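We modelled the chain as a single entity of 95 amino acids. Its sequence is:
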Amino acid sequence: MSAPEQEGHEHRRGEDCADYLERIVFFLDNELDEADCSAVRHHLDECGPCLKKYDLERTVKQVVARSCHESAPEGLRARVLVQLREVQVRITTTD
């Protein structure tokens, strides 16, 4: 199946693969709730093209994780932490 056909193909229940392909990254990062995880797993069990895309995304994520063993310099880490705290303070003061 070509890329345009893969992205737009639909299943008998009207499930659009594009919706699932968007959720793959969140699924890989364990950022979906159990209901969404279950739906994605079920879709991947039934859809070969989406399963191939999932396998590719998972492989890329693993390669990047293996390649990124460096730590940020301490000065950068400190600046990032300060900025995160500033954002947290702004969020809590606007609520």
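As a brief sanity check on the tokenised model: The two ends are 49 Å apart (CA to CA). The mean pLDDT is 83.
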